[in-house]
Amino acid sequence: MNRFILLITCTALPFFSFSQNTTVYKCVIKGVPTFSQTPCSKDAEQITLKEINIIEAYKSPTQANNVTDSSVDNFLEVQQIEREISKLLLTLKQTEKTYQEQVKQVSYVTQDQANRLGASSIADAIAKKTAPITSAYESKVTRTQQQIDALRQRKQLLSQIP
């Protein structure tokens, strides 16, 4: 039981302040200001040092008003948005490259392949094979561009917030 009381006392002790206002005495001895706990001469100046609550002294005024500084959060979010936009732009470049490769492969159609597709000519067969590729490419580019535009709008909005 004694150990339990001792444990609670030692645990709670740092949360209590036993210090009070402190009195010191200032004397000038041989032209040098000297401070002491006891009067050092008859003309000693008594100085009272008030207890300082360190937590209150260093408390930020924005914390007292429950206002948070979101500029750092906004900066970090803008940086994240820029990274996402860069990734999407790279995706667009890769999509363009893939599209060009697929169109190039389609251009190697022979007359025999065109006949199997039921096309009247090689050009007609190329057009038939290219149409779905172009449609898929344009759809993907449109979606990606919309994502980029939305991210840029969000970035602009965050840049306007102080």
From TrEMBL:
Keywords: Coiled coil. Residues 134-161 form a coiled coil. This is RNA-binding protein.
